[in-house]
């Protein structure tokens, strides 16, 4: 039986493809890599031929657009190139230059990612961080297909073969507009909310977590609006269109539209959400560059939540 043939592709082709995809231009990719534009174009064309699929759509005067297959290969190629770089630099452990592919849960990114990136740029400017924004249903896939090494995520919907390092637990709270009758309170019972319209943060897995707080207490909320955008939910609530349940607590109670939110502790016991560093349990140890990201993530979470605790006390 003849072995299955594999596409004949090279690391150079992957590097040229990643550069072109990230810049959206073969010309800019060529400038970054100090090669001729024709070399980039020919290499990517040969890569597409070897794989039997189109990766980039060439649009005259509008740059490059990734196809669905191109998006998938871009994520995987980043992981491959990062692993190769790490293997090469293994003989020099002090060397942390190169790329590392990591993930971050979408609603966590605004709270922690700026601190992490700033710290890494200050301490390791030679390190290039490639971040993929993920939702609960995407963390497992990204870790399993090795398009990322590690993710800063909520412990929501993670598979059993995913290792979790718990960095913090954040409680569930209710929020209403500053002019809402319930805003005169500091605490609220879930039973007091079921007759109010609910504005639900409607994200995969997350939605079930928020609704579970009611169902575990034999209650059924009246979901009136659903939004996949964290700030969209907050803006609707601040404008008086109902209440919501959330975990992350912005430092300011104001929304983009200028409305103000009032937080309410929940009287009934509810399950907090763990913020974790997630990685494949079967994988080898994290690369040195991924460890640097993990270390800064630990510090950022401790710093941000520590500041919140102090301001609340």
Task: Characterise the protein shown here.
The protein has 313 residues and is α/β, with parallel strands linked by helices. The chain has three domains: 11-66, Orthogonal Bundle (Arc Repressor Mutant, subunit A); 71-169 and 274-312, D-Maltodextrin-Binding Protein, domain 2; 172-271, Periplasmic binding protein-like II (D-Maltodextrin-Binding Protein, domain 2, 3-Layer(aba) Sandwich), CATH 3.40.190.10. Helices cover 40% and strands 23% of the residues. The chain contains nine helices and 13 strands. The chain has helices at residues 11-23, 26-33, 37-51, 68-89, 109-123, 136-144, 206-215, 230-238, 288-312, and strands at residues 56-59, 63-66, 98-105, 127-134, 150-154, 162-170, 173-177, 187-188, 197-201, 222-227, 244-246, 261-266, 273-280. The strands form four sheets. A five-stranded mixed β-sheet has the order 4-3-5-13-6, sandwiched between helices. The chain has a four-stranded mixed β-sheet with strand order 8-12-7-11. It has a two-stranded antiparallel ribbon with strand order 1-2. α5 (109-123) links the parallel β3 (98-105) and β4 (127-134). α1 (11-23) packs across α2, α1 crosses α4 (68-89) and α5 packs across α9. The longest helix has 25 residues, at 288-312. The radius of gyration is 23 Å and the shape is elongated. It starts with 10 loop residues before the first helix and ends with a helix. Mean pLDDT is 88; it is low at 309-313.
């Amino acid at each position: 039986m003849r072995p299955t043939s594999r596409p004949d592709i090279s690391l150079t082709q992957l590097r040229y493809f990643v550069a072109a995809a990230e810049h959206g231009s073969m010309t800019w990719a060529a400038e970054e890599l100090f090669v001729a534009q024709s070399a980039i174009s020919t290499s990517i064309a040969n890569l597409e031929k070897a794989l039997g699929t189109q990766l980039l759509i060439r649009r005259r005067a509008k740059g490059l657009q990734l196809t669905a297959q191109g998006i998938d290969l871009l994520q995987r190629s980043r992981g491959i190139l990062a692993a190769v770089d790490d293997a090469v630099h293994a003989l020099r452990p002090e060397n942390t230059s190169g790329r590392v592919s990591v993930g971050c849960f979408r609603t966590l990114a605004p709270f922690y990612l700026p601190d992490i990136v700033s710290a890494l740029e200050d301490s390791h400017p030679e390190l290039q961080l490639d971040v993929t924004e993920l939702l609960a249903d995407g963390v497992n896939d990204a870790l399993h297909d090795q398009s990322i090494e590690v993710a800063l995520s909520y412990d929501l919907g993670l598979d059993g073969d995913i290792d979790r390092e718990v960095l913090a637990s954040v409680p569930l709270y209710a929020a209403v507009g500053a002019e809402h009758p319930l805003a005169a309170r500091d605490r609220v019972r879930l039973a007091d909310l079921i007759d109010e319209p609910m504005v639900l943060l409607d994200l995969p897995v997350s939605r079930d977590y928020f609704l579970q707080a009611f169902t575990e207490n034999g209650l059924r909320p009246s979901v009136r609006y659903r939004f996949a955008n964290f700030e969209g939910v907050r803006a609707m609530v601040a404008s008086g269109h109902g209440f919501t349940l959330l975990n992350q607590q912005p430092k300011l109670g104001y929304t983009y539209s200028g409305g103000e939110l009032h937080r309410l502790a929940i009287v009934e016991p509810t399950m907090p959400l763990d913020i974790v560093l997630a990685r494949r349990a079967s994988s080898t140890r994290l690369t040195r560059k991924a460890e640097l990201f993990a270390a800064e993530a630990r510090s950022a979470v401790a710093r941000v939540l520590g500041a919140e605790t102090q301001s609340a006390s």
